[in-house]
Amino acid sequence: MRASESNQDCPFAVTDTAAALLDDAGTVLAWTPAAEALLERRSADVCGRPARDLLADADSDSGGWEAVLAQRGRSGCAGREGREGLEGWEGRATLRHGSGGELEIGFRVIPLNDGAPGKAARCLVIGAPLELVSRWRQDHAFTQELFLQGRVGLAVFDRDLRLLRTNTHLLPYTGVPVELYGRRLADFLWAEDARTIEVRLREVLDSGTPLIGFNTTVRTLDDPRGGRIVTVQAFRLQEPDDRPMGVAAVFTDVTEHERSRGRLDLLYRATGALGGSLSVLRTVEDLVKVLAPTFGDCAAVDLAETVLTGGEPTADEHLPLPLIRMAVAGAEPEVLRTGTTTRFAAPPSASAERPCPGELVTGLGERPAESGDDAVPEWAGAVPGAHSAMTAPLCARGTRFGRLTLWRTGDSAPLEEDDLALLEEIAARAAVAVDNARRYTKERRTAVGLQRSLLPPATSEKPAVEAAGLYLPADADSGVGGDWFDVIPLSSARVALVVGDVAGHGLHATAMMGRLRSAVRAMADLELEPEELLAHVDDMVVQVASEAESEDPDDGDAGIALPGGPAGATCLYAVYDPVTRTCVMASAGHPPPAVVGPDGTVEYVELSPGPPLGVGGWPFEPVELDLLPGSVIALYTDGLIERGEGDVDEGMRDLAERLQRSDVLGRPLRQARHDIVEGLPPGRLRDDVTLLLARTRVVDTGSLATWLLDADPAVVADARHLVLAQLTAWDLDELSFSTELIVSELVTNAIRHAGGPVRLRLIRADTLTCEVSDSSNTQPRMRRARSSEEGGRGLYIVAQLSHRWGSRYTMGGKTVWSEQNLPLT
User: Fold this and answer.
1) Which of 65, 425, 571, 613 could form a disulfide with 500 if both were Cys (CB 3.0 to 4.6 A apart)?
2) What tens digit of pLDDT does each residue of 625-658 get?
3) Rounded to the nearest 5°, which phi and psi values hold at 504?
4) How far is CA 417 from CA 254, 326, 661, 693, in A?
């Protein structure tokens, strides 16, 4: 019969193998059941007949065992003398199958005696289908050649995971014994590494599921440093009865491949870390965190001090460059301390292939620390216990401004030239990133300086309010924005409170902020109502945006474009009058201010914000509210309520709680402002934060004097007498002469040019204000009178006697005012 499924890969197995016993004449003496099944011929039909009758071509002498036996002559199966005769021979033949067909087989003839005299020569012939024999021979050759291969390690383990057979390339690593038969992996590998592999092999042995592509590190007991990375693939070996025989495993050394892939991965991650920030410090901190402990046990970056402030490093490569250690990873703080100063001596000579070469030092424990050609460099010996170190300069645009250094300690593999080449590549990319961050730092410092120079003093004391402002720039990654606040003194003891936010960041936003602040201040001097002032500023922003769009992009002197498009800024403008205790405000897309009442409650002003500045064509709606004395009004930019922690409503609730916790009613505002922003991450803000606090004050009735005068020139003298009496009551007789002239000129002009009733008012605050209001809308204009003219010198006299003077439109006409400084007490 054909071999069973369990034995079909072993054609010459002892059991179930087709076999026939022949005498010296070639007659079949015995026929096994396996032979009956193979040819489908019964033993009774074959035994006693010549074996020649089984051949498909009985007349052929090629290869059949009948022809072989005939050649032996009288010696029969004994055949040749010596070893060949005793071991037998092999061949192939085509036999007649019982079904009428033919079957090609491979056979082997085994002599059963040596052909001694008096003994019948017999031969045992075993055979199997030729296809099965060929496959068995292929399997045998494959296995034999596989064990001869030198590029992979092959091992056969028994059921106890002891080595039965290996090739010479099992583990090409120091410390692997030459004779491995009967040993376990733990006999020559680290217990941890051996345990890792044996656990996987045991899983294969128990489950029969092959192990494919399992990477692990192997280290020998004799040389544990570094180790090798191998890929293990394993499958189970089985007995004919399907019982596990053992495990066959293939060990492939992929150390260099994994190291190359690891270097590429490290380069990729280092490049990603370098592009994550525009801050010099954060850039180098992120870099060393990637390098240690992946690439080395310790890593450090030293930079020239000028780099941190955005300055240009020195270009003299021959002088030692003082460096400050800015970032450290993987070392104890007492070993490598940030902030320490080191020296960067002249590096090795550069070449076209290596414009910024690094330096590699190995065997640190074996080299002398004293001076000499073989001494350990100072930078390499900074880490105790390090056995190798390397450093690469940070250079950009031909200038060296720092270095990147790496150390390896303990059992880690020593650094090699390939590692140095990788460090040089990382250092080259780091130098570009750090230089970009340095240049950005320079621009940011310029923008911050410009921003702060354009802002008013942080605190101010006015008759109308006690004000305190605060500005926090965004982090280095976001850049300086265009936030601003302002406190503008107006006539009649009034004050304007302004807060604004220009879209975008950087110098463009800062420059635009300066233009807007100047525009608001200029229009505030015109005493415009808040909604009218915002409309004029809106027109200006639209004009600036249109000019920026029409400019030639190739013109190097092109103006500053407004970032963010036409809707480039928001603004809130509020005017507080301490006499009437009212506040009128209008908003151009800006968040509403918060008002802290004297009872401690916090409410947001209900206003209808118009569009941001730059949209154009939309009106702005004013809102008027009464403020109790001692109330605190808080104006802010969206950076304070939009910090990526939730929606705007949540930010406004948080601001209200901060205002209450900071006790703005009972403390100086210059102190409370810091508590309000407490907890905001310094240097980590995504947007600028601006806060302006103003505590309202009032001008009491005792400091006011108001008279309504008829439009009669005769009342001018009465006005002078009224004013002189009031000044005496206020103990301001020193201002009697100047005030008498000012009142006389202003009342005379009002009666002469406007007619109707005239209102005269004196306000004593930090200055003495004299106001004359009439029903005319014609603005007074000071002119130079000719020597022949009798009049035209009135406003000139007012201007000379006043600290400042001006006029403003009102609902019923205009008001001309004059301010004088109070005498020193």
Assistant:
1) 571
2) 999 999 999 999 988 888 655 578 888 998 999 9
3) 90, 180
4) 19, 26, 61, 62
